[in-house]
Amino acid sequence: MLVHPEFNRVAISIGPIHVYWYGLMYLVGFIAGWWLGVRRADAGRHGWSREEVGDLVSYVVLGIILGGRLGYVLFYKPAEYFADPLAIFRLWEGGMSFHGGLLGGIVALALFARSRGRSLLQVGDFVAPLVPVGLGAGRLGNFINQELWGRATDVPWAVLFPAEGLNAIPRHPSQLYEAGLEGVLLFVVLWWVSARPRPTGLVSGVFLTGYALVRMFVEFFREPDAYLGYLAFDWLTMGQLLSLPMLIVGLLLCGLAMRRPAQAAVLKEYP
Question: Is residue 263 assigned to a domain?
Answer without folding.
Answer: no
